[in-house]
Specification:
CATH architecture of the largest domain: 2-Layer Sandwich
Largest sheet: 9 strands, antiparallel
Length: 465
């Protein structure tokens, strides 16, 4: 097999688009610059084989990049152009895709069929392969993480062997590679279960953080007609800080959206970027933004206008693009049992005030229990607390962010919760192993399917080596 792949490598060598040594690659946070040897822009599975052969020959490691929102290696496979739609089955409500495709591209493809995605991140900019690798979750309280909607996948191992895996086929590999951070192989294709693109009714309530857990139980979890849900807490300084909240639910009307209805495109990007930028730099900007969010974005009551599921899953995101040499915006996520949510927010408030964290946004979601993935963050029913913060790019600021992050992780652990591995590597090795006790089993599976440790990234080097 290796000999055959090497011949393929020689024939197709010039499909590589970047051959300069010592390239620098970074993720979206701009905190993880990594020196790499090659970038291969994948358009065909043969390009992946090229990269694997090159890496093995030169004793290099391989990492995989989709939209580069997670974490890097020596030979990087850029999957962005590996984005073909292979099949849409309206009757079975499934789609089969190459994994460099984004959720936005899938929405464009399935909307004319009256179909919609079940589970994806709140934003549609991410690649399917990257989303599977972090076992992403969404806003539909009826579903857990992405693994619940994957019928089967095709993957390529380090030696070029292609396997079909799924809930009932090569289950050990399926459960490990979903949420396995690209450490076991390359996900080539995925068949994903879709749902009907229903018309939804948006309803927003004002809910204090002390009441949110009960609100979830009574008005979200117990209501099967709630098809999407999220909450926000105020980050404006003063009495409302991490206390006052707005929660929004999208209720099914029982009717399907018109198949000819167009998908909405993001508007007012420059205006929204300016307003968000003001809140990034000034306390009064945060107060202004919270006032606008309460009065215009998510006002209390029923929206008079119905919205399709696809359009409700296309929130504005481009205005968050931010490029500064001095500072950057980062995401973090913690999963806290419902009964411990108030305690966690109280600790978060104290931590933000103690460390003077520039907290830009906090969103809340319900996370159903799901133990399918080996490195599962959803071993029990929780509230997902998503933080969006601005930190300096200098070492002192990064170290400080590490301090308050580890404090939040310790608190989540003490309350029986977990944290999301996807973002910055601020957690200690001990914290990671305590929250994800199946890491030893994961290591055994990696030894079985990648004995030479071809697939490696900074995340693996930090927590496993």
């Amino acid at each position: 097999m290796i000999k055959t792949l090497f011949i393929t490598f020689l024939v197709l060598f010039f499909n590589w688009v970047s051959l300069a040594d010592d390239l620098i690659l970074d993720d979206v946070s701009r905190l993880n610059e990594t020196k790499i040897n090659r970038i291969i822009r994948v358009q065909d599975s043969s390009h992946i084989q090229e990269g694997l052969i090159y890496a093995i020959k030169h004793r290099l490691k391989v990492s995989i990049a989709g939209k580069r929102h997670s974490q890097g290696g020596h030979v990087v496979l850029d999957m962005t152009d590996f984005d073909k739609i292979l099949d849409i089955n309206p009757k079975k409500q499934t789609i089969t895709v190459q994994t460099g495709i984004s959720w936005a591209q899938i929405q464009e493809a399935v909307n004319p069929y009256g179909l919609a995605i079940k589970v994806m991140q709140s934003s549609n900019i991410f690649s399917v392969g990257g989303s599977i690798s972090v076992n992403a979750h969404g806003r539909d309280p009826r579903y857990g993480p992405l693994i619940e909607t994957i019928n089967q996948m095709k993957i390529m191992l380090f030696n070029g062997v292609v396997k079909t895996i799924g809930p009932n086929q090569n289950t050990d590999l399926f459960q490990a590679i979903t949420g396995g951070y690209g450490l076991l192989g390359i996900i080539l294709e995925a068949e994903i279960q879709l749902t009907t693109n229903q018309l939804l009714q948006k309803i927003t309530d004002a809910v204090a953080y002390t009441e949110y857990a009960d609100y979830l139980r009574q008005k979200v979890i117990a209501k099967p007609k709630v098809h999407l849900h999220y909450g926000r807490l105020s980050v404006a300084a003063g009495k409302s800080f991490l206390k006052e909240g707005r929660v929004t639910s999208y209720y099914s009307t029982g009717n399907s959206a018109d198949k000819t209805a167009k998908l909405v495109q993001e508007k007012w990007i420059r205006r929204n970027r300016y307003l968000f930028g003001v809140s990034r730099k000034h306390r009064w900007g945060k107060k202004l933004r919270w006032k606008i969010e309460k009065s215009m974005v998510d006002p209390v009551g029923e929206s008079k206008k119905l919205i399709s599921r696809n359009n409700a899953m296309r929130p504005q995101i481009k205005f968050l693009d931010y490029d500064s040499k001095k500072d950057t915006d980062i995401l973090q996520e913690y999963f806290v049992p419902l009964d411990q949510f108030q305690s966690f927010i109280d600790h978060l408030r104290r931590t933000v005030q103690q460390y003077k964290v520039n907290l830009l946004n906090i969103t809340l979601r319900y996370m159903a229990q799901n133990k399918d993935a080996l490195l599962s963050y959803s071993l029990q029913e929780t509230i997902a607390v998503v933080l969006y913060a601005n930190i300096g790019r200098d070492q002192q600021s990064i170290d400080l962010a590490g301090e308050w992050t580890r404090s939040l992780i310790d608190n989540a652990i003490s309350l029986g919760g977990t944290y999301y591995l996807t973002y910055q590597g601020f957690a200690t090795k001990e914290q990671m192993q305590q929250v994800y006790p199946a890491f030893r089993q994961f290591q055994s599976i990696k030894q079985k399917y990648d004995p030479n440790e071809v697939f490696v990234n900074k995340f693996y080097q930090q927590y496993w080596n």
